[in-house]
Amino acid sequence: MKHKLVPVAAALLTALASHNVAAESATDIISDGWEVHGYASMNYRMVEGETVDTEYGKPDYKTAGTHGQSTNQVEFVIKKRTEHQNGVWSDFVVRSEYGNGNSYAYSSPGSQKQEHHDGQFEIKETFVEIGGISFLGEDTSVWGGQRFLNRSAGILSGEFWKQSSGVGAGVQTKLGGNTAGLAVVSADADGTINDVEKDEDGNRIDRNTLTSVDLYYYGVQALGGSFDFDLKFMSQANSDDDGIGASITYNRDYYGLDGWTQTAVAYGTGIAQNRGVNFGSWSGGNDNAESIFFTSYGVLNISDNWQMGSEVTYIAALDELWGAEDLERMLIAVRPSYKVNDNLRLEMTASYGYENGKDGYWGRSGDDVKSEIYNVELAAPITVNADYFGRPQIKPYVSHIMADDRASAKQIGIRNGDSETVIGVHTEIWF
């Protein structure tokens, strides 16, 4: 009888041991690695032999040429991806940036450290995302930290019209086969004084921290494309101001032709006046702030050699926008591109920018009230891949900017007369 029990006991011990091993190894790392991505934009541009600081109204949808002011902008994104035996995964992401917004042509002595403070080294994102947790479901992930959440930008203006930039946390999952998410992101308002400082009476100065509660649902298939829906509820500490922003984005081919487009309409009120869903330290507004925003941009594949990028963007105050009554801005831009061979592309950019408002906005009157800006640019990018988005590339260009009058020209940084010509070489890489 004892001999018969031995195999049974051994089997039980083996089963228990196997269970313990399995339990211990569920969190074992099965893959662990690093990825490095990045971006660099080096814009060597001159006007009559002098570097310039102006972007010629590009952030305000007035021009669409190669007008970024950064002479040496470098961005690195480092991601550590870890996967475990039980299906759980994690990402640790750090995005660093140097030189964004700096227009000086620095030399080797490191004068930027001594004389200027714009565009220094910064950490733009640092967050952890964890997914595949059994009690949440394989399609669900949670994240926490500082990040740019759900960014979208115009293809020729280059302006981010949608994002939540700040520190926060969120959860993302699948509902009905589509991506759904909830996030809370906060950012201290521009100009906020550090709370360790005191006022004249020695009292602590409160921070005007901004907070956005984001709800989003992406990838709804309909009308030959897909729709993305965003809804944001914004508030501000130590203030009665709040706001609501919403947008609908339609993604499809190039209006029925070969290519792609992204078309969006957004609404914002109060704190969300800035294109409705563009949240960050720049956000703010009172009960009078209300705006509507429309944009449509994309790339058309015309033939094996011809492509064309285009953008139409419009933003208007329904009451006030950035304190200006009846303010409206519009940009219409196209960029046809011709592939000469695998390593050379010819580009032409043409844009029309318009701004107008009620007489007296921002103290403007007369010719200052309305502005019309025209921009024509010719370029010959040398690249490793002559596709429209072929990078890296070195792009010699000549850009001519013309305003309807001297008042409009002055607003965008033209110093003499109503026009200016920029000669430059723009170097760019994505990886």
UniProtKB/TrEMBL annotation:
Matching Gene3D superfamilies: Porin, LamB type
Subcellular location: Cell outer membrane
Signal peptide segment: 1-22
Membrane topology of this protein: Multi-pass membrane protein
Keyword check for Repeat: no
Primary localization class, coarse: membrane
InterPro entries referenced in this protein's UniProt entry, alphabetically: G_neg_Bact_CarbUptk_Porin, Porin_LamB, Porin_LamB_sf
Keywords in alphabetical order: Cell outer membrane, Ion transport, Membrane, Porin, Signal, Transmembrane, Transmembrane beta strand, Transport
Pfam families xrefs: LamB
Protein name per UniProt: Maltoporin
Organism (species): Photobacterium lutimaris
